Amino acid sequence: MRSVRHVVLVGLMGSGKSTIGRRLAGAMNVPFVDTDTAVEAVSGRGIREIFAEDGEIVFRDLESRVLRDALSMETPSVIATGGGAVLRDVNRNLLAGHHVVWLRAEPTLLASRVGRQANKASGHRPLIDDDPLGRLTAMSVERRPLYESVSTIVVDVDDRSPDEIVGACRRAIAGSEA
Ligand code: S3P
Question: What is the DSSP string of 5-68?
């Protein structure tokens, strides 16, 4: 068992990883890191620009790098990942030994949250621009087994408020530390 055990949030776009992560970190009084924000900081570009100029592979390389850096921090932290961080096995292997919380949600809920931005081709989610519900449904099929394989905690987010979700995360984390 590694000495520093971070809390890592995984799940599809729109499942609330950044919002819940920030609140959870505040409630636990630990630092918060968002890997999408970190990718933008290290590259000096927005995620949409990285995809448009260099393509997904370059984005995924940057994502792997910032995830590895975040997980190597010595202060226990809450880390929100991008929805596709689980696609690479090197990333999945890095998550072993940490609290990995899967914020599980139905694609219809996710599309209702993130679809408006996608329809305007704005924001940091270029992969769903053309068809938010269709793309999220396909991603859900592809990624569910991956989220399942890495997660130590599963929290269903449909029909629950942020406070309830943060509470559920905290109880589950405390329970798995006992
Ligand atoms: C992606 C999710 C996005 C962002 C990028 C790719 C994905 O992050 O990393 O657009 O492949 O699911 P969020 O999950 O924070 O929206």
Answer: --EEEE-STTS-HHHHHHHHHHHHT--EEEHHHHHHHHHTS-HHHHHHHH-HHHHHHHHHHHHH
What confidence tens digit (pLDDT) does each residue in 11-47 have? 999 999 999 999 999 999 999 999 999 999 999 999 9
Dihedral angle sign, alpha carbons of residues 100, 36, 165, 129: negative
Residue 153 CA, chain-centre distance (Å), reads 14
Per the structure block, which two tokens stand in for 58?
């370059």
- Distances in Å between the Cα of 105 and the Cα atoms of 1, 17, 38 are 30, 11, 25
SS3 105: coil
What ligand 1 atom has the least distance to the C-alpha of 39? 9
pLDDT (average), residues 138-157 = 98
Q: Is the pTM of this model over 0.85?
A: yes
Q: How far does residue 116's CA lie from ligand 1's centre (Å)?
A: 15
What is the torsion angle, in degrees rounded to the nearest 10, for the CA atoms of residue 20, residue 24, residue 26 and residue 31?
-100
3-state DSSP assignment of residue 153:
strand
Burial of residue 128 (CB within 10 Å: 0-12, 13-18, 19+) is buried
Atom of ligand 1 nearest to the CA of 12: 14
Please identify, by atom number, the ligand 1 atom nearest to the C-alpha of residue 125.
10
Å from CA of 125 to ligand 1 middle: 6
